[in-house]
Amino acid sequence: MIIVMHHEATPAEIENVIAAVEAKGWQTHCSSKSGQTTIGLQGDGQPLDSFHVGLMPGVLETMAIDQKYRLGSRTFRPEDTTFTIGQVTVGGDQLAVIAGPCSVESREQLMETAHAVKAAGATFLRGGAFKPRSSPYSFQGLGEKGLKLLAEAREATGLPIVTEVMSPDLVPLVSIYADVLQIGARNMQNFNLLNAVGQAHKPVLLKRGMSATIEDLLMSAEYILAHGNNQVMLCERGIRTFDNKYTRNTFDVMAISLLKEITHLPVIADPSHAIGVRHHVGPVTLAGIAAGADGLIIEAHPDPDKAFSDGDQSLTLPQFEVLMTQAKVMAEAMGKRV
Ligand code: PEP
Ligand code: MN
Predict the structure, then answer these.
(1) Which end of the chain is more exposed for a tag (fewer CB within 10 A), N or C?
(2) Closest ligand 1 atom, CA of 187?
(3) For the whole model, what pTM was predicted?
(4) What is the DSSP string of 152-208?
(5) Which protein residue's CA is at the shortest distance from atom 8 of ligand 1?
(6) pLDDT tens-digit profile of 226-259?
């Protein structure tokens, strides 16, 4: 159930409603916008009489939620969620542009990329220090050394850092260096990890699992939101379909438009992992913006053919610069700025 309070409800009336439902064993989450408070209920409390709750002083209306996801739903919070990381506000009218290499490989590689993507218009630097690889024989990332290089690059460019955390025990370490904790597609339903990043109170970029439904993605976001961490970005990064000869995944462009309708959380498009082919990253990027994405995450590398991971889909730095000029035009068409 969601309880919507009157604009004029007093703090005492709000407290009174919270106390009454908590006394029935429910946990509450409050959201306030323009002076109006919404109280979301969570947990396994005793049944509530919505008629009785609706008559309590200060209550405007009660709503039963039929979706499985609650805190991420527009029913709970009709307006877009925005939050500010460094100088960038995500979810508003500025397109967040997260760019950088798939993996942090060396100081030179990272610094060159960081300066180039910043000059081209990126607002965040990405780079994996801990890499989830399909093969145990592939490059696994530089670990903490990679995190330290990312922090150096932030120091040099001012770009906040987005980097992946692969297990709950690594959340404290990665949180020291990262501005945004990335949950990779392969870990979207690692519930212990979701609980750990929920408790970390750092912004989270939650990638859609490659065979996850939209509802699965939203349910995973609930794990993070339920800890009171509201700074969650959802990421469409392509799903597995039947063609893997020409494309790595299938970019579910509809998911972006749909998510924007049913959830208040910002949605980020990842064209790189979706298509997996450098030459086609541009058109997919523009499609993501056209579908209403709040941001992009794009892989770029000074010498993609020599990249330790995901070279096939990584843009050269000049290609990234060109794409940003096109992205600006598309963003403007969608009422956003880069
Ligand atoms: C990545 O961002 O490099 C990555 C591993 O992404 P995904 O989890 O979407 O495959
Ligand atoms: Mn990658």
Answers:
(1) N
(2) 8
(3) 0.90
(4) HHHHHH---EEEE--SGGGHHHHHHH-SEEEEPGGGTT-HHHHHHHHHHTS-EEEEP
(5) 184
(6) 999 999 999 999 999 998 889 999 999 999 999 9
